[in-house]
Amino acid sequence: MTDFTLHTQDTAPEDAKPLLAQSQSAFGFIPGLHAVMAESPELLEAYQRVHALFAKSSFTAEELTVVWQTVNVENACHYCVPAHTGIAKSMKVDDAITDALRDGTPLPDARLEALRSFTLHLVRQHGTLDEAQVQTFLDAGFTRRNILEVILGYSQKIMSNYTNHLADTPVDTVFEKFAWAPADKAA
Prior knowledge:
The protein has a single domain (14-178), classed as AhpD-like. Helices cover 61% and strands 0% of the residues. The chain has 9 helices and no strands. α3 (41-55) runs antiparallel to α9 (144-167). The longest helix is centred in the last third of the chain and has 24 residues, at 144-167.
């Protein structure tokens, strides 16, 4: 992997320092992902902004978690799956939902399973879904707005998942208890 610096307030480029201060304020620490992204203040700022926008979308906490973790698991992100497990717990998302997402087993709710399925189609088919896939999503009670919001959430996860793959970002201590590996590498 490429050797990336885990920046601190002292080592970060000048334009990244206020962004890291924002991270410190929001989380009580600077997440490793943000420390890596600080190398490019533009990427860190974009990531923080897209995260804030997706978090205030029309999705519930459970639905946000489904989109985030579906992408994280599909992209086998060693950092984001544990981080979003902790985030889901802080958002009071049922552990059964989180466990099913992490394990790749059916979700306990048909509507949430439709969201996961749609998100997987979007990722795997690079946004080229057929009419039936879109209609199935809409028939599950979702809207055209939700289609675009899934794209927003996926955009956020591309930034984080790809950064973590390239930087091999160490999982933050607070999330280590939620460590995860893809099923084919878990043994």
